Amino acid sequence: MKRSFIIFGKFEIEDIGRKERDVKFIIYQSLYIFVIATLGYHGLNLF
Questions:
Q1: Nearest 5°: CA angle at 34, between 18 and 22?
Q2: Are 29 and 4 in contact (CB under 8 A)?
Q3: What is the rounded CA–CA span in Å between residue 16 and residue 19?
Q4: How far is it, in rounded angstroms, from Cα 47 to Cα 44?
Q5: 3-class secondary structure per residue, the chain
Q6: Domain ranges (residues) in the chain
Q7: Is 11 within 8 Å of 18 (Cβ atoms)?
Q8: How many CA atoms lie less than 13 Å away from 16 in the CB half-sphere?
Q9: How many CA atoms lie within 13 Å of 15's alpha carbon, on the beta-carbon side?
Q10: Which residues contact 25 (CB under 8 A, 6 or more apart)?
Q11: Residue 33's closest CA among 22, 23, 41, 44?
């Protein structure tokens, strides 16, 4: 979690030319969180 925050903060400082990469990063991070949440939810249901 801490690492993601550092990367996120770094992106905010960098110039607008990299905005496209920022968007991809945010999308991938959201998907990652969604997958982890879904797996965790199903994991709880299995036990």
A1: 5
A2: yes
A3: 5
A4: 5
A5: CHHHHHHHHHHHHCCHHHHHHHHHHHHHHHHHHHHHHHHHHHHHHHC
A6: 2-46
A7: yes
A8: 0
A9: 1
A10: 7, 8, 11
A11: 41
Give me the pLDDT at residue 2, please.
Answer: 52
Tens of pLDDT, residue by residue over 1-47, are 455 445 555 555 555 566 777 888 888 888 898 988 888 887 777 65
How far apart, in whole angstroms, are the C-alpha atoms of residue 41 and residue 46? 9
Which residue do the tokens 């993601």 mark?
4
Look up residue 46 and give its amino acid. Answer: L
Give residue for tokens 């990299």: 18
Both structure tokens of 47: 């036990």
